[in-house]
Design goal:
By secondary structure, the chain is α+β, with helices and mostly antiparallel strands. Helices cover 53% and strands 17% of the residues. It is built from twelve helices and seven strands. Helix 1 runs antiparallel to helix 2. The radius of gyration is 20 Å and the shape is globular.
């Protein structure tokens, strides 16, 4: 076996884990796949004879690529300003598919990805590599061009931000599902009081609606405002399909047989604390909705 074949086989063994690193860094499966492919190309051009820990070496390559992609994304003037709705991972309501288990390990819900998006690229990298993948700070430091102690501080700042801004999901999927079903039933029935009862007073609704004169992003805060939006949404006559969105209960809505939007929910202590809506047609087309029953028409 020559060196190139050996590297190819080892890379494939690590691909799922590398994709998980990139997804946490970028919040997008399509961009994560691009990052992993670029990492493969870089690895083929590198001298691997002195590599002692291939897993760590490949993670650092993916991290460097992802860091560059984050910086490029933030530097694009055409990027709209507003709340970012990450690209969700969709599974049937019965459970997460095996190929998504590594991607969603460590409770990588939509709420966490939203907060990660607010971090600076170096903070995000330090937190993801150290707290999620156990990469030591002396290996993170060269990637972010800081000292190990400075890299530690980056991760610490990120950790504090996440703890204060990302409410933990309820652990029991059954309880989350009951809360989301109560919300959907109240929306369908136009029961404003029932909607208020299931929403946290400080609930936030974030929506990426795609290009338009009103702008791509909407953010609404407070139970009464979000309940009003929910009632309006249910009057659109959309088909509704329960799914799991990043491992928690969600919904895919359809219109005339085509995906219209994906809703992900964050449930804490029996109330919905966040609703994230992806309705940008271009981004919806990039989602993997295979393996799901067709949504109702």
């Amino acid at each position: 076996m020559d060196d190139q074949q050996w590297l190819s086989e080892r890379f494939e063994e690590h691909r799922t884990r590398l994709r998980a690193v990139a997804y946490r860094m970028l919040g997008s499966l399509s961009e994560a796949d691009d990052a992993v492919q670029e990492a493969w190309l870089r690895s083929t051009r590198a001298d691997t004879s002195q590599v002692e820990n291939l897993d760590a070496w490949l993670k650092t390559i993916v991290a460097r690529v992802s860091l560059n992609m984050l910086r490029a994304r933030q530097g694009r003037p055409e990027e709209p300003v507003g709340p970012y709705v990450p690209e969700p991972i969709i599974d049937p309501p019965q459970g997460v598919r095996p190929e998504h288990e590594t991607l969603l390990a460590d409770a990588v819900g939509i709420a966490l990805l939203v907060v990660l998006e607010t971090l600076s690229p170096p903070e995000r990298l330090a937190y993801v590599l150290h707290d999620m993948f156990d990469v030591p700070f002396d290996e993170i430091a060269p990637i972010v061009e800081r000292s190990p102690e400075a890299a530690r501080q980056l991760a610490s700042r990120a950790r504090r931000r996440i703890r204060s801004a990302a409410p933990p999901d309820d652990a029991a999927l059954t309880g989350q599902r009951a809360t989301v079903e109560a919300f959907l039933a109240a929306s369908r029935d136009g029961d404003f009081d029932a909607l208020i009862a299931v929403l946290h007073p400080d609930v936030v609704l974030r929506a990426d609606l795609g290009p338009g004169p009103a702008g791509a992003f909407v953010e609404v805060r407070g139970a009464r405002a979000v309940a009003g939006r929910a009632e309006t949404y249910m009057h659109l006559g959309l088909g509704e399909k329960p799914v799991l969105v990043n491992g928690t209960p969600g919904v895919v809505y359809s219109r005339r047989g085509q995906p219209f939007s994906v809703l992900g929910f964050t449930v804490t202590a029996g109330r919905i604390t966040a609703i994230d809506i992806l309705a940008d047609p271009d981004r919806l087309r990039q989602l993997d909705l295979s393996g799901l029953d067709d949504p109702q028409q």
